[in-house]
Design a protein that fits this description.
oxidoreductase; globular; single chain; Rossmann fold; purine biosynthesis; binds the ligand Nc1nc2c(c(=O)[nH]1)N[C@@H](CN(C=O)c1ccc(C(=O)N[C@@H](CCC(=O)O)C(=O)O)cc1)CN2; Aminoacid_DH-like_N_sf; Bifunctional protein FolD; 3-stranded parallel β-sheet; alpha/beta
């Protein structure tokens, strides 16, 4: 964690995401090996629209990881001028290709395009980001399906580090479709690693700190850099920095590093929730391949 470079006095235990991601990816590699032994090469297709440097970088990271794990990773790069129909055509082609088991459209896409409409075109069973409306519905109903990667990564991170969640008060600051809302549904489910009393609050609530200050586990999911400060944290609480904003490749987290002075445990700014998100992507992808060939 970069707190060592700041004057912050760290008292909180760190909750790194890297060992969590490594454990998940080791399991994924074993499942990939089993698929390949049965003659199936799992394939995770990626779609990049436009020339955003950061997005191109994340696609490269995913392709490198895919190769290490034994996935095929067909890739389509559409120009920034691509139309909604161009994007839909690419997705329809991947839907129709039985050799492609998972598909992701790297976010953000150019402003004239509608990400949600594109997601709607994607086969929900190939949606490895777990963001298709059908998969959100499955999550809401507690049915099996690909889970949104960052929420699933946060549940795994807390479980890995032995942070009890069941019966505890979790407050999520932020209600976005990629993190706050699905995480609330996930952590409220009846499972030993969930089963929490979950409150979702957002920055449009004038007195939001009243909620965050009572959290035993506080998840920042607002996408507002530095919004969570020590005075918003209950002493000894577990603080999870899920929300980030990207400025190019620079990651600006919601949680100010000085929160480590008050929290009992905290995710590091770098190597916290991020690596678990990528690991969950591959977990979703290998499961999609297993389902497609009847191994799931
Ligand atoms: N289709 C998707 N688009 C985007 C997603 C996504 O999950 N699906 N998430 C982000 C980008 N992203 C993956 O695509 C991603 C970004 C960053 C990390 C990460 O692990 N970051 C590191 C390093 C941070 C730093 O150097 O400052 C960390 O958190 O430790 C993983 C995934 C937007 N688009």
């Amino acid at each position: 964690m970069s707190v060592s470079a700041s004057p912050t006095t760290v008292t909180a235990r760190l909750l790194p995401g890297k060992p969590v991601a490594e454990k998940i990816l080791t399991e994924v590699a074993e499942q990939v090996a089993a698929l390949r032994a049965a003659g199936v090469t799992p394939a995770l297709a990626t779609v990049l629209v436009g020339d955003d440097d950061a997005s191109a970088g994340y696609i490269r990271i995913k392709q490198r990881q895919a190769a290490e794990l034994g996935f095929a990773s067909p890739h389509v790069h559409l120009p920034a001028s691509a139309s909604q129909q161009d994007l839909h055509r690419v997705l329809a082609d991947f839907n129709a290709d039985p050799g492609v088991h998972g598909v992701l459209v790297q976010h953000p896409i150019p402003g004239h395009l509608d990400y949600d409409r594109a997601l709607d075109v994607l086969d929900p069973d190939k949606d490895v980001d777990g963001m298709h409306p059908v998969n959100m519905g499955r999550l809401a109903l507690g049915l099996p399906g690909p889970l949104p990667c960052t929420p699933a990564g946060i549940e795994a991170l807390l479980a890995y580090h032995g942070v009890p969640v069941s019966g505890r008060e979790v407050v999520i600051l932020g209600r976005g479709a990629t993190l706050g809302r699905p995480l609330a549904m996930l952590l409220a489910q009846k499972r030993p690693t969930a089963n929490a009393a979950v409150t979702v609050v957002h920055t449009g609530v004038a007195d939001w700190p009243r909620y965050t200050r009572r959290a035993e586990i506080l998840v920042a999911a607002a996408g507002v850099p530095g919004i969570v400060r020590p005075e918003h944290v209950r002493p000894g609480a577990v603080v999870v920095g899920g929300g980030v904003r990207y400025e190019g490749r620079r990651l600006l987290p919601d949680v100010d590093e000085s929160c480590a002075e008050v929290a009992g445990a905290i995710t590091p700014r770098v190597g916290g929730v991020g690596p678990t998100t990528v690991a969950m992507l591959f977990r979703n992808a290998v499961r999609a391949a297993q389902r497609a060939v009847g191994q799931g």
